[in-house]
Task: structure prediction
Amino acid sequence: MRIGIVGAGMAGLACAEALAAHRHDVVVFDKGRGPGGRMSTRRVQTPVGEAHFDHGTQFFTAQDPGFQSRIEAWIGEGAVAPWPAAGPGAYVGVPGMNGPVRQMASGLTVHWSSLVTRIEGLATGWRLSLDQADPVEVDLAIVATPAEQARALLAPEAADLAARAGATLSTPCWTLMLAFAEPVGLVQDCWTGPGPVAWAARNSAKPGRVGPETWVVQASPDWSQAHIEDAPETVTAALKTALSNLLDIDLPSPVSESSHRWRYARSGAEGSVAIFDAVRRLGVCGDWLNGPTVEAAWVSGTRLAHLIAATAKV
Result:
């Protein structure tokens, strides 16, 4: 079948990989400019060189045997490496967190900067409307986006599935990115704490990183929600103070500082792993179905592909 997937995050790409292995004709659409999503890496020019920040997902772990096997393959391809500083069994993408999704996307047909504005049911499939291109018709449609975006796409054609997405909302996260000309004088690379800062890490200490010393600070869900509409400059100042308090040091003056607001940072968990309606030829996958982790997203996308391969008819 010709299958269209909306969303090129971990879930969408895992689903696409598995469907392509079953010899389906798969095309993926994503509104972003390149691989990453919540596994993105941001690059910033500074007076001391280009700074790199994993400003979304910090690391991932594995319990599912299939996902562990996929990680081992990524390690062999140079796209993933262990990061013991984050704890036993922690892994990161190389040279940035988007390493594995970039590797996955390279073997698939993915259209970047392609916002799908509507999915419309046809007698024999679906029409995907794009904001800057002609519509695309497919035999089967898959929505692999965060719950909030899935709800909007599904509502006109699958109100039942939209309601499930609408009841499983994400929590936001403000992320602070700091670059320094000299190393911050601390041995420990990862910090967690009470208060505004949920996580702080020396990003430049991750395997395969180059460039100046960088730190990524992620605020707690409660703090982020309380300050969701604050100006980035206000958030930057507040989180710098919170980081200094957490580390119990006076921070040097950064050569670069900025904050990024993730409105849909940490997904909920609806209770399903994947959804496939063979009659409507419509599938849904994503970490919002089974938990807010990279592993959950991969498992969801892979499970959906297996459901389609087992039940769908050409």
In short: The chain has two domains: 2-40+98-169+268-311, 171-266. Residues 2-40+98-169+268-311 form a domain with the FAD/NAD(P)-binding domain fold (CATH 3.50.50.60).
